[in-house]
Fold this protein.
Amino acid sequence: MGSTTLKQHEIERMMKPPLTDEQWNRLVAFGEPSDVAAGEYLFQAGDRDYDLILVETGEIELVRVAFGWVGETRIGTMGPRSFVGELGLLNGQGAFLSARATRAGRMLRVSRAQLRLLMAEDDDLCDIVLHALWARREILRRGPAALTLKLVGPRSSRDFLALRRFADRVDLVHTAIELGPGDLGTLGEHGITLDDLPVAFIQGEPMMRATPGMVAERLGLSYQAHADEVVDLVVVGGGPAGLAAAIYGASEGLSTVLLDAVAPGGQAAATSRIENFLGFPFGVSGGDLIGQASLQALKFGVRVYAPCEAVSLRPAGEHLEITLTDGRVIRARTAVVTSGAAYRTLDLDRWSEFEGAGIYYAATPLELRQVLESPVVVVGGANSAGQASLYLAANGCPVHLVVRGTDLGSRMSSYLVDRLLEEPRVEVHTESRVVGLDGSASLESVRIDSIGAVAARGLFCFIGAEPATSWLADLDRDDDGFLRTGTDVSVQSLERWQNLGREPLPFETSVPRIFAAGDVRRGSMKRVAAAVGEGSSAVASVHRALADLR
């Protein structure tokens, strides 16, 4: 039996885990019982708030509702001593399938609040339920349920690529349909024009000119404040540092909200392979690492919202106020800024024209599909550029790696340098620069000053990033925009710190109870493992700051 078949078998086993009498009795203690008649709905597609359903007697069928062009489809059935639900119960997503009783029986409802209580109090049941919810999401993404969210757009469209990247990184059950230049497929029959692309069909209803924010709002993934709510910790930025801070905070009892302007992952999610991360001797892709961390965050009750961009962070009395782009305000006792950095670009004519149509800042399976087995150019001299070059070459792409410096090993790990020099599909050009871009509707060639024009279906840019701190004007930053923290804070309000009777804590910025970790912090090591360490360590200081409020 192959490894793929074994993995599929394992997933199917986890979908319907057998429960002992003792486990079942502990599980039903979290539910509210009710008698359900045949034909009655326990929840329906589109419901924003729904429950985990425990089937004591009777039977439930899961169905994808009928759309305009397809009829209702049965996804599966759940009988006695089983539970009905999937990962959306943890991440706040509304229901995209309907649950209907096919046989009358006694069933119990476990609210989302009770489900989180279960996961916090019973490690055994937590593991069983979490594995099942994850396994069901994996199965659903490959079946007819994927039509509940259908994304359609031109293959070379930057907006369509952003939509697909969002759906992948937020782990949505969906399907994506690529169109050729000027092609509408069957969309024209529905009155949709080229100007309406990309389109997101949600439960069969078209959303024209769809954006990640619009889709998130419709699916229930955007931030929703509870009345007069003040959370213990808001983490701004969902990269490795942010995820680590959120996971450690939530696991230690803090009510925690995680925001990201795009989707969890940051630059790490764009890394095709990390080979020197502790505990992964065979390497791990950035996407897989972030996927597991995101699941871990949900396990501990982190409320994750994306895309959700913060535009200001200021003290407001005893609390902090984080204002979002839509004007909504989150009130918190502490905050950790892990907003990372924005990708640098090359100052070249037509750069913005080719972004999403040949220029990329990541090398993952999503970008690979755009350039498969075609020549590409990779720009950069650090680990991310080396990892991308090897990944693209391993998937059939001839690669020109353009490095401005004279020594490939000055900023890149030696194991990567050795592999690059041994890889026949990679041609390294040191002391070189990209000086021009050419193509019609998409990128076709790149001019390199040392060798001239080369054919290129894609240019992958890994030349570093600028710290994403322009929205934090009130915090002390260095000349390059990185946040100063701890003993590095140079501009202090004497009265502010005297009233507290202390100096800034490790990772604390110039404003009390606002912390920073990861790439955004001055002096940080720009590595995934270091970011994880900083994010988790910052939470120790968060606890000390919270103690001052009590």
Remarks:
- The CA atoms of residues 17 and 426 lie 47 Å apart.
- The chain has 15 helices and 29 strands.
